[in-house]
Design a protein that fits this description.
- The complex is a heterodimer.
- Chain A is mainly β.
- Helix content of chain A is 0%, strand content 50%.
- In chain A, strands 2, 4, 5, 6, 9, 10 and 11 form a seven-stranded mixed sheet that branches.
- Chain B is built from no helices and eleven strands.
- In chain B, the strands form two sheets. In chain B, strands 2, 4, 5, 6, 9, 10 and 11 form a seven-stranded mixed sheet that branches.
- The termini of chain B are far apart.
- Chain B is mainly beta.
- Chain B is globular, with a radius of gyration of 13 Å.
- The chains are: A mainly beta, B mainly beta.
- Chains A and B meet through strand 5 and strand 10 of A and strand 4, strand 5 and strand 10 of B.
């Protein structure tokens, strides 16, 4: 059974940093691109970052480019999201998601972790 | 960036009714379109990928179709467990973009 379990969320002040983790199991982690998707309270879904299966390719929307860094450790089957220079508008639930192998749709999602940016 | 205009924003329907939700892409995205269901307090779940392909384990009352740059999700014979918010996603080119969502309730 595919499982994605996020951790590392919490309350952080504006301008500070936070690192999220996503522990994967039930599939060959190194074979799949992975992503982070977020959802602000009572809002819709927003794609945040994606990474290729080997880690050599990373992709971001302009809203987080230069502030967020996605990475992975295939030996540990773990995905990461380093979030720097956090803003109040980054407050959201962050979901780890598995891409279909050709980096298209998201076929499995984690349960999400809440990040609150506030002073 | 490719914009996905989803309609309606909310919908109230009766049990066993047929429901249709649409997404209009701002440019050609081929079949790079998927649909997700999000129940209250839960993470999204894949329903349809490649515009028309049913994801594993999804009931056959769900179906997807495409006409040019307009994509539709159809639910035949609405059930109680189908309430929630539905999103489309274009994965033709980055940044991948979601529709604004459709909140589906039972009448």
């Amino acid at each position: 059974e595919v499982q994605l379990v996020e951790s590392g969320g919490g309350l952080v002040q504006p301008g500070r940093s936070l690192k999220l983790s996503c522990a994967a199991s039930g599939f060959t982690f190194s074979s799949f691109p992975m992503a982070w998707v977020r959802q602000a309270p009572k809002k819709g879904l927003e794609w945040v970052a994606s990474i290729s299966s080997g880690g050599g390719g990373t992709y971001y929307p302009d809203s987080v480019k230069g502030r967020f860094t996605i990475s992975r450790d295939n030996a540990k089957s773990t995905l990461y999201l380093q979030m720097d220079s956090l803003r109040s508008e980054d407050t959201a639930s962050y979901y780890c998601a598995r891409h279909e192998p050709q980096l298209t749709h998201f076929d499995y999602w984690g349960q999400g972790v809440m990040v609150t940016v506030s002073s | 960036d490719i914009q996905m205009t989803q309609s309606p924003a909310s919908l109230s329907a009766s049990l066993e009714e047929i429901v249709t939700i649409t997404c209009q892409a701002s440019q050609d995205i081929g079949n790079y379109l998927s649909w997700y269901q999000q129940k209250l307090g839960k993470s999204p779940q894949l329903l349809i990928h490649s515009a028309t392909s049913l994801a594993d384990g999804v009931p056959s009352r769900f179906s997807g179709s495409r006409s040019g740059t307009q994509y539709s999700l159809k639910i035949n014979r609405l059930q109680v467990e189908d309430t929630g918010i539905y999103y489309c996603l274009q994965h033709y080119s980055a940044p991948w973009t979601f529709g604004g969502g459709t909140k589906l309730e039972l009448k």
